[in-house]
Amino acid sequence: KKKWSDKTLESLKQILEQPSISWNLLEDVFNIIIDIPVRMDSNMYVFAQYLFCTSSFFFLLNFVDLYTIEKTSKSKPDIEAKSNVESEIKIEIEVKREKQETTEAKKSEEISDKTLQTLLIHHLKYCFLCIPCLSLLTVQGEKKPKILIDLQTFMKGSLHKLFQMVQNKTIEFCVCQFLECDNNKNNLKTLHQSLLKLKDDDNNKDTQDDLQKLLKLLEKYKEFVHLKELYVTVSVHYKFDDNTSELQQFSRFCKNWDLESFPDAQEKYLKELETLQKTKHQLEELKKVTGSWVFKKLWTICQIELKGGMMLPFQETVNKLHKNTFSNWNELKQTITKGTFQIKDIEFSELAYMFPLKTHTEIQSLTQDIETKLEKIQKFKSMQASWSKLIKATEIVEKHYKLIKATETVKKNYKWNPLLLYYSDWINFVSAFNEGKNFLTKTEASIQQLSTCYDNCASHFKEVDLECVELLDLIAKHENTLIKELATSTHFVNKNHFENTMETLNNSKDPSLQTLIGALRTVNENIRECIWN
What we know:
By secondary structure, the chain is mostly helical. The protein is built from 26 helices and no strands. The protein folds into four domains: 195 residues, no CATH class; 116 residues, no CATH class; 121 residues, no CATH class; 45 residues. The longest helix is centred in the last third of the chain and has 40 residues. About 13% of the residues have low confidence. Keywords: Membrane, Transmembrane, Transmembrane helix.
């Protein structure tokens, strides 16, 4: 948009202060570029384009240029150029008059009070756009263009209507909303202060107190809207029961309040506003976690528990649910920070809502720690079948070893006997595995407990490959035949007998026996060290 620059305004002021100025032409120029919406007509909101956007703006610039030439040049001014500008201005005036006559012919009906409120917003917008013109009203000349005087009167009238609405309590929500938008409140202050400073502003009935009353009213409006938005947001995200019916009428009113009187609404819903004001802190905290599915689930649980009692008023309902839900929420946060996070809570990982004061790095570190523990739990679950088969196969081979003695004594003394290191590791492995398997069946088990069980198991036996699993299956399948015979055979169990047997086989000419000898030595050595001894 084209707007008047400070330089242009200063040039206009200088023109207005000259006694030799052509007032007829100047009046015509201002009548074109300023179109005051004196009628309360919805189709009259075209004035801004005249003031800032149309070719009239450039007519004015040409006029200023011609005036400057006429003032400074010693030769005669360019009469032909000046005549062309005057001709164009007259044409523009005729076009504008035709538009005004057409508009007035179409709009002869009376304007309702509600339409007046809406039009007041348009008039205030116009006044704010015309604030730069106020500097033209401070010129020291004897005359001023009538249109500027009319503009000043229009601005005062618009502000007076606004202040009257505050005084008689008819100002509507839509007007308050407009004044709170963008920079309108500051524009209002600037406009009011500028009008008060005009020396010839004897008829201005509005004082600084009127402005302060309006500003105080707008503060109350902001609080009203804030409480309404809090209530609407919370009631949408946290479903309340019928015990909140005391606010249902207030909620319905808020859906279509634009053309309602704000002061009247304040008085009518005073009780509801007091209730919302008393629960403001709780509602604001609830609003902060509306994106958390976890919190909503905890809220629902507490709401179900509260249903067992009497139906409570809104304020008491909010206070109790807020207290109980945040108590559970804080307990859940502590289980995360202390590593006592439970399996049933794994889906609750929404750390950004739980710890809003933690930095991104701290949240990321906490998240990685939880993810690492969850990965270990998943690995434990995937290894559960293989480790179970390993334990079963080992117990089978151990059970049939006829020379094992004093098992209980060994178990009792393994901590102090370095020769029983393998047996000690085995007992630790079996104990950690059984503990982890037991934890998986309990929802109250923490991810820290389960991840520790995996660490203890994996420190002794990590992944069991497919070939090992096939061997373990064969041991279980042939427990009462081949395994029993092998574990009870003196030639395999007794070390001296085994060596004699291997020597006999080694002396054989059969090449296939040479491969068997190597495999038997490996198996015998491992079973002896890891199981029997």
